Amino acid sequence: MEHYNLSYPINTVSWDGKVVTRCSDECFLPTCRTLKQLGVNELMVTGYVTVEEADFDMMEETKRLGGLLDSMGMRPAQHHGLSAMYAPQGESQDRVIEKLIRSIHYTANMNAPVLVIHPGQVDLHLSTVEEYTEYFSEQIRKYGRQEILKTCAANLDTAGEIAGKLGVKIALENVELFAADITLLRDLLDEVKSPNIGFCFDSGHAHYKSASVLNCLDILQDRLLTTHLHDNRSVFDEHMPPGFGTIPWIDIIQGLWKAGYDNTINFESGGWPGLDKETGFELAIQFWRACELLAKKN
Ligand SMILES: [Zn+2]
Prior knowledge:
This protein is an alpha/beta fold. The chain has a single domain (6-297), classed as Alpha-Beta Barrel (TIM Barrel), CATH 3.20.20.150. It contains eleven helices and eleven strands. Helix 10 packs across helix 11 (277-297). The protein is globular. The chain binds zinc ion (ZN).
């Protein structure tokens, strides 16, 4: 893949941790138009989640948004949702599966080929990421790592069957515990039987949480479905455009090639800062194209 198709995020909803609210079309359409002008036809759409309530009908709204983007010759490269992966061990998993299936429908409604979710999220409404992480760790301490991963994998397999019928794949992102210990995600994906479940490589999380960003990509390369590419200085999650942090982008591109990755490159960052929207995106795209060129030469 000499030149990847590129995709950037747009904000179509906002949320405060309690309720999801719809943004007006004018919040995101200018970004869509700018990207389209620059030859980018794909977008990252975030936030049709099943964790919080919404003040609108998500099923209808995702259909409308899919139609609107389609009328502009655009589509989401991925839908970043949030949906629980397991209910506390020993309890019925039915609600988890129902929510995963609902998330798959939202994704299909928008013509997005991939739903990205965070692994290890329990079906409880906790307040912070740390609380979800602690709950997952506690379940592992109580019932064992393999038992908890088995429960998650069984739920994913059931959801994966429906996803396949709707032309959607589910990608699990390396985030928090699953970024710090990449073997956790490797073992979970090894436990999953459905071919519709795979990996979303988040370069930023790997760079500041894992021992090596390239090693993270290497370990899960056979399951790679989509990406969250963004940069940082290896200390915290800065979500900067590639080139402003310390990630070796030429090596990353060569790693993606080695993995045989030929889907869209989805950035989880915007254009270069401090510039008008068009120039900012233009420079970000030029930087990426230059890296692709250098990756080929070296
Ligand atoms: Zn991400």
